């Protein structure tokens, strides 16, 4: 799975902290959207620029820390 994030976003850090706390860091590809290439890839994949954005293996995506955390907690519970 790919997590698009901004280094200054508290919602992104909430998701990242949860992932790290569960020991799942190696299951994710992190893309920094403060860099032009990351922002362009997010736009291409999801059609929008909101972060955090999680792209799952089946190419669907979730936006926002609450939706992402609910999905991950269900997946890894």
Furnish the topology, listing elements before pairings.
Elements: E1 2-5, H1 10-21, E2 29-32, H2 36-46, E3 53-55, E4 61-63, H3 65-76
Helix pairs in contact: 1-3
Describe, in plain words, how this protein is organized in 3D.
45% of the residues lie in helices and 18% in strands. The chain is an alpha+beta fold and 77 residues long. The protein has a single domain, classed as 3-Layer(aba) Sandwich (Glutaredoxin). A hairpin with a 5-residue loop joins strand 3 and strand 4 (61-63). Helix 1 (10-21) runs parallel beside helix 3 (65-76). It comes from Granulimonas faecalis. Residues 1-77 form the GST N-terminal domain.
**Relative helix content:** 40-55%
Poorly predicted spans = none
Could you name the CATH topology?
Glutaredoxin
The structure class reads alpha+beta
Mean pLDDT comes to 94
The CATH class assignment is Alpha Beta
Strand percentage lies at 15-25%
Q: In the CATH hierarchy, what is the superfamily?
A: Glutaredoxin
Organism: Granulimonas faecalis
Protein name: GST N-terminal domain-containing protein
What is this structure, in a nutshell?
Helix content is 45%, strand content 18%. It is α+β, with helices and mostly antiparallel strands.
Give short descriptive properties of this protein:
77 residues; Glutaredoxin; four-stranded mixed beta sheet; 3 helices; Thioredoxin-like_sf
């Amino acid at each position: 799975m790919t997590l698009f994030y901004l280094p200054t976003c508290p919602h992104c850090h909430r998701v990242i902290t949860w992932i790290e706390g569960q020991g799942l860091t190696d299951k994710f590809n992190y893309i920094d959207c403060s860099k032009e290439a990351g922002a362009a890839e997010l736009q291409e994949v999801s059609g929008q620029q909101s972060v955090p954005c999680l792209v799952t293996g089946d190419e669907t995506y979730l936006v926002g820390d609450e939706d992402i955390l609910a999905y991950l907690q269900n997946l890894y519970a």
